[in-house]
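Human: Not sure, check this?
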Amino acid sequence: MPRVQQGVRVLGPADLPEVLALLERDPVTNVFVDYRVRLTRLEPRWLGGEVWGWYDDGVLAAVCHAAANLVPAAAGPEALAAFADRAARAPRSSSTVVGPRPMVEELWRVLGPAWGTPRDERWEQPHLELTGPPAVEPDPLVRRSESADIAALYPACVAMYTEEVGISPEADGGRELYRARVTQLVNRGWSFARYDGDRVVFKAEVAAASPYACQVQGVYVDPSRRGEGLAAGGMAAVVEIARREIAPTVSLYVNGHNAPARRAYERAGFAQTSTFSTLMF
């Protein structure tokens, strides 16, 4: 596809090396887009959407993942305005807008009037990283989930999602799709949990990974076991396995108001490096 001097175009497989080089300038912050780009090789049929590139004087200077999640990366105000203008030309197809807060704010300033009011706005989400060993002893009972665990794991995943997002992932006929996602993470070796018989008392998943970093999501402690310190030890176990077998840096972002989770992550050794924001529809 011809290179543009200034503006936005849809990226394809031939652009992969240039896109990866751009994302690798900040590989932890950009891990989600990096993961999606590597996984799909920028093939639209695998993306379920598009990746847009912003060119400044003929050089790729920013990208935006435009699929179920609208996620800008390495983008300044001019690129964000261009991405927002492109997104506003069509009906909304993304269920979330997520990324570093300054980027989401600038994107939404232009895009908001076209897409309307989000169902939920989470502007203050500390982005945390851990590059070294965890600061507390890993919980030895936390392990990778296996196929035989899915019957016990799936209800915990539904409970976590419903508590975190505010709606059930099974709503509107979504049960099969969500169960397939849980199974996919288990089969990939990205699901970790502590099991008490047929009940999950702690769980977390790796949602995205690159050679440089992985991003954790879905952290959950059974309500009847909260306050026992399971999250800090559980996260330490996840970090230990993930850093050894998936990627050298573990990251996540957490709702700013979730004080117990933030304390647990701090105890495990995570430190804030930036702030993310998420808009949900």
Q: What stands out?
A: The mean pLDDT is 96. DSSP finds nine helices and twelve strands in the chain.
